[in-house]
Amino acid sequence: MDFAAARRQMVKTQLIDRGIEDARVLSAFAEVPRHEFVPPEQILDAYADWPLPVGLGQTISQPYVVALTIEALHLRGPERVLEIGTGSGYAAAILSHLCQAVYTIERLEPLARAARERLSRLGFKNVAVYHGDGSLGWPDAAPFAAILVSAAGPQVPRALLDQLAPGGRLIMPVGAEYGAQELVCVSKDRDGTLRREPLGGVRFVPLLGAQGFPTGRSGED
Ligand code: SAH
């Protein structure tokens, strides 16, 4: 399988043809080897136009959805970015091309460990992976110029709004745990005023935690 050709095709048909325009975002997708982020049994579908399972009931999002959310952060290069929901580490790897430093949090320890090892093996040096409840953010490293939440919550966690820098942008799916969700962009003005803008309907796995959906129910973990 020619992964480089599959990746070029993905960028053209799934991203450019659907309206992703930011040249830096497109070149990050052209660079990052997505096939390194999927389980071996999914490798032939690594560049396909749908989400894929990555173990423990979690998924690596469809390439277009990763591009849509990351483009909406409006990154220029000098930012420190917080991501909640590391999963495979793929979105963190894309982010690492677009900003100065990425702080990513995953609540499932085996996924956090695997992503940390993968990102280090592939040479992504500006990504820190933390195992914990990302609904509380990463207070020690705050504030962040951009925050990407890669899992859907009932509302935007207060802790994340507090950790967003003035002038910053937060992108997160909000809605029902297993139903309708909307991608929202919250921007914080220089004076701290928050503005909220809807970006369309989406479907993400739930954000579970203190400021997400409740954990510890039967059938989970
Ligand atoms: N960005 C990932 C896909 C994320 S799927 C990628 O590129 O592969 C959503 C992830 O969020 C899952 O791995 C899930 O375990 C994690 N998650 C859910 N609730 C969380 C929380 N409170 N803190 C951190 N991670 C959480």
Class inferred from helices and paired strands: alpha/beta
Whole-number average pLDDT? 96
Low-confidence stretches: none
| Form type | globular
CATH class of the domain at 51-202: Alpha Beta
CATH superfamily of the domain at 51-202: Vaccinia Virus protein VP39
Note the beta-strand portion. Answer: 25-35%
SSE order, as H and E?
HHEEHEHEHEEHEEE
CATH fold annotation of the domain at 51-202: Rossmann fold
Q: If you compute it from the alpha carbons, what radius of gyration comes out, rounded to the nearest whole angstrom?
A: 16 Å
* CATH architecture call of the domain at 51-202: 3-Layer(aba) Sandwich
The helical percent reads 25-40%
Straight-line N-to-C gap: 35 Å
Which small molecules are bound? S-adenosyl-L-homocysteine
Find the count of extended strands (DSSP E, 2+ residues). Answer: 9
Number of helices: 6
User: In what order do the strands lie side by side in the largest sheet?
Assistant: 5-4-3-6-7-8-9
List the topology elements.
Layout: H1 3-15, H2 23-31, E1 52-55, E2 58-60, H3 63-71, E3 80-84, H4 90-98, E4 101-106, H5 109-121, E5 127-131, E6 144-149, H6 158-162, E7 164-175, E8 181-188, E9 194-202
Parallel strand pairs: 3-4, 3-6, 4-5, 6-7
Antiparallel strand pairs: 1-2, 7-8, 8-9
Bound molecules: S-adenosyl-L-homocysteine.
